[in-house]
Amino acid sequence: MSTDLTTLDITAIAAGGDGVARHEGRVVFVPRTAPGDRVRAQLRAQGRFARGTLMSLERAGPGRIAPTCPHYERDRCGGCQLQHLSLDAQRAAKAQMVQDAFARIGKRTVPLPVVHGAGQPWRYRRKLTLALRRLGDGWRAGLHRAGAPDEIFALDDCHITDARVVVAFRDVMAQGAHLLPHVPSLRASIRRDGDDLLLVVEGGMEWQEGKVFAAAVTAVSATWWVNDDGRRRRLLDRRTRTDAGASFVQVNADVAAALGARAEALVMAHAPATVIDAYAGTGDVAAALARHGVRVTAIELDGDARAACAARLAAPSRAVAAKVEDVLAGLLPADVVLLNPPRAGVDAAVTAALAASATKPRAIIYVSCDPATLARDVSRLPGWRVASLDCYDMFPQTAHVETVCELVPEGA
């Protein structure tokens, strides 16, 4: 394929956020383009498709807007993919991504889903994770450039992150950068939990100054260190109350609440006496179901999260510390199974256990953060049909979308 500039008409947004066009029989993916755009792009062939680099915009599509964050274009920030689209155009693209994933990967035809929003499209993130690179005696703290995962740029501000979190990160670097582990690179994240700010530093095998660092960074309430072997250690905790601490939580509280309410309502619509809540986290949905009188078995591998979940459940409900694929078959049957896996989706043993269960659940409620793995996992359940599909715009300005999929046995 020629490396000369080529004129392309963008027709859609692909999973991941790139614009899609066609040229000389190939599908072409061009980042930072919008449906309806006519662009000049530099192309490079990659087998049956091609990648394009946007060089100039000849005609703007109807959904294109000027990005809000200066890092988006100036530094090619990889944190957001869709800031150049209006919010309505972003949500239309995300609905199409989900429908396309079911058709292409799941071999299922589903209606175009609705993408629900809640709260604000900016400053919604209560967690920020930065890459740190040692430069001489100092550090650069920033985000990765799009298409260049080894490159980072210094972050001035992140417009999708709570301003208190951004300010706290600046304070942490000012107060304690000289005490960080003596390694070439680190990851660090700050999460807001109510009025508390929680810090996790990842990297290195030794950190003699860790507790000194934690005492010095007064901008945060609690600090953890995760070494290169994955062992997590709490260095200091100034909080007046404690919960799961460094365990995973959704970064958009408003949308997470709406999504959780939908999942709870779908479960309860099947009038269950027993529910398995797989990948239960700290137990928000499990505790809500238990309050309805449902006997919940929550499964969670992370020790801190499982402990927090267990503290919210009274017998006969319980929390099990295990991998879902290791224990699900032994915990079935259940009236409803709730799945909320990480981006990789569920292990094949999970869908196999559900398919092999002598007594089928009345429903499987699958909460997904990746349409591709959701569609793959649904394809592994041929005896089930999609009864409802709702999407949630958990991460405005990015190409990510959350989906709640209700599955019921064929014929139900």
Radius of gyration: 23 Å
Number of domains: 3
- What is the arithmetic mean of pLDDT? 95
Q: Counting H and I runs of at least 4 residues, what is the number of helices?
A: 10
Low-confidence stretches: none
Strand percentage lies at: 25-35%
Cα(first) to Cα(last) distance is 52 Å
Helix content: 25-40%
CATH level-4 homologous superfamily of the largest domain:
Vaccinia Virus protein VP39
Detailed description of the structure:
- This protein is of the alpha/beta class and 412 residues long.
- The chain contains 10 helices and 21 strands.
- The protein folds into 3 domains: 1-64, Nucleic acid-binding proteins (OB fold (Dihydrolipoamide Acetyltransferase, E2P), Beta Barrel), CATH 2.40.50.140; 99-118 and 250-409, Rossmann fold (3-Layer(aba) Sandwich), CATH 3.40.50; 127-237, OB fold (Dihydrolipoamide Acetyltransferase, E2P) (Beta Barrel).
- The protein has helices at 70-74, 87-104, 163-176, 210-216, 253-268, 284-291, 303-311, 324-331, 348-356, 371-379, and strands at 5-9, 12-13, 19-23, 26-30, 38-46, 49-59, 114-116, 127-135, 138-145, 148-154, 185-193, 196-202, 222-226, 232-237, 274-278, 295-299, 318-320, 336-339, 363-368, 384-392, 402-409.
- The strands form 3 sheets. An 8-stranded mixed β-sheet has the order 7-20-21-19-18-15-16-17, with helices on both faces. The protein has a 7-stranded mixed β-sheet with strand order 10-9-8-11-12-13-14. Strands 1-5-6-4-3-2 form a 6-stranded mixed β-sheet.
- A hairpin with a 5-residue loop joins strand 13 (222-226) and strand 14 (232-237).
- Helix 2 (87-104) runs parallel beside helix 10 (371-379) and helix 5 (253-268) crosses helix 6.
- The model has no long low-confidence stretch (mean pLDDT 95).
